[in-house]
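Below: protein 1.
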Amino acid sequence: MSQVCDTTILPTRRSLAPVAGVAAQGHEVVYHTVVLSMCAAALALSLVLKPDAEGLSLWGYRWPWHCWLHDAFGIKCALCGLSRSFSSLAHGDIAASLRFHRLGPVVFALFCLQVPYRLYAIAIRPRRIGARWARLHVALVLLVGVALFANWLLTLGELIA
């Protein structure tokens, strides 16, 4: 006597790989779009905002947001002055940009480079960015992050000395 067995074909990991890849690519597109939007907004605002020693102004009105760490404790954070530095650079004043933040031009350049990098990442959507480009990008972001942290330590050291 033979027994007939009802079998169902369960998906294997290999058969699910294309589906998981599509979902991962969708998340990557969202990620790249969010980063692109944030960088583009920061660059656009730096064109519109006017810097001065007190802060930023938008069409004659004071920009309401300030560094909460500086407001609460009087201590500059690692990013204090970057908004004014960006705005000064967007208006062509490199010397003022450096006065507001030592690394302002470097961070501004990183934000500017994010725009073509993220557009390219979105445009080649079915494929991923090459490993070399991705490693170079991560290394550049980490280098700027470490430089910002080191600059902050220098600034704190100047306050102590």
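Below: protein 2.
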Amino acid sequence: MTYLDTLFDISKRVGGENNCGYYVLVHKKHKRVVCFRDSKEVIEFIKPKFRHSTLKRILYWFITKGFHRWFFDKVLLSSRLGDVIYIANSVKSFDLEEKKVLVFKDSKEELLNDIASQIFLQSFAAKVLEIDNKGLYFKEELLYDMDLSIKDIAKKLEEFQRFTGYKYIHGDFVKDHVKVDNEGNIKFIDWNFKEGNPEEDIKNFMERSQ
């Protein structure tokens, strides 16, 4: 399935007419896609996706100057998808006004497993707001980027590790996986549970934050 197939599929699942324009940026090597509507707020929201290399920062500068209007592909999708769509290991769309995220899954089993995991995680992950069994997606609260100290992150990881009996670690833990909710509470995204030494989480974080 191509990224266009995925985009049209999730647009169909949420319903509505395909009459809203999204600019599309494709990272072919890593098979990642960023789709975004053209507004100052949206462009500011996607900024963290472009901070990991000089080339990405230059590309983001061109977006802030409006060059995407001439050089990026554009696709018409349902406005119900919100403002930003990310396709990577998962498919998510972000509605900045309603402060919610739509998380799409390929099967009902996968949908229910992910929802069960997030409910199990309670205060460590985004809160599940609504489930659409027919469309195979659920809505969760919108989380935000914030500069946080290693001490605060380590403290939250310690809480998580106590909660799980010092058994599970996050996995490929990087700075982008650390967010905050509207109340400023630290939460984690893109969970990848596996058994191991809990200290691996913070070790991975430190190594990948250099």
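The longest strand covers residues 18-27.
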